[in-house]
Amino acid sequence: MSEDLRSVLRSELQRLERELGRVPTRAAMAGKGEHDPAQFIDEYGSWEAALEDAGFSAERLEAERYHGITDEAFCLQIDELFDGDSEDQFRAELLLELRRLAADLGKSPSVSELSSYGQYSRSPYRDRWDSWSDAIRAAGLEPNTGGQGNAVERSELKNEIRRLADELDRRPTQRDLRERGRFSRTPYYREFGTWAKACKVALDES
User: Fold this and answer.
1) Sequence ranges of the domains in the chain
2) H or E element in which residue 158 lies
3) 62 Cβ neighbours under 8 A, 6+ residues apart
4) CA 191, CA 30: separation in Å to the nearest integer?
């Protein structure tokens, strides 16, 4: 069974690499993949071990980390910061990480997504910007307003997962949620932490 699962996970990493044109990060899998990144960690012990099984190296992952950032104006801004002192250079690294997460997730990252998938904690951002929204704007992104995610009840989220499962006759993936679901992934991450946990609560414990 484990080898069957590994075959599925391996194929998904390879598919996403072809789609992105770069080695997928955990954030890219969360934002654009069909499986929760936690599944790979649970199966392989680390993201790097999963990548190696799929034929990708940790070195290539690191080398391609920022390849998803294509905004020329932002890149010029970062180059100017890197020409400055050590504080400017660190600000550049912090902003690059926000844009990297946004490119991988397909949206502006939340604090919880920074904690889950980012290279830095919330602290250096808090020390340099008045609010998380200010840090997001400094990276040339639009802050998430919450909106829909704040209005959806936990029971509605679980019912939607069950509806998708019934419609598809299988456990829905994040891609199914994007293509067929009533809600975005934001309220699921806010309420349950990961898509895998949301499905477990809705399906395994129903």
Assistant:
1) 2-63, 72-138, 148-204
2) helix 154-168
3) none
4) 16
Q: Cα torsion at 139, 63, 68, 81 (round to 10°)?
A: 20
Rounded to 5 degrees, φ, ψ at 23 are: -65, 130
Residue pLDDT, tens place only, 47-83: 999 999 999 999 999 999 999 998 999 999 999 999 9
> Amino acid identity of 115?
S
pLDDT in tens, 76-87: 999 999 999 999
The closest of 188, 174, 181, 182 to 39, measured between CA atoms, is 174
Q: In angstroms, rounded to a whole number, what is the distance separating the alpha carbons of residues 205 and 197?
A: 11
Contact 100, 68 (CB under 8 A): yes
Assess contact for 183 and 152: CB atoms under 8 A.
yes
Calculate the alpha carbon distances from 199 to 8, 58, 71 in Å.
18, 30, 35
Tokens of 155: 């029971």
Give the up-direction half-sphere exposure of residue 125: CA atoms within 13 A in the CB hemisphere: 25
**Does pTM surpass 0.85?**
no
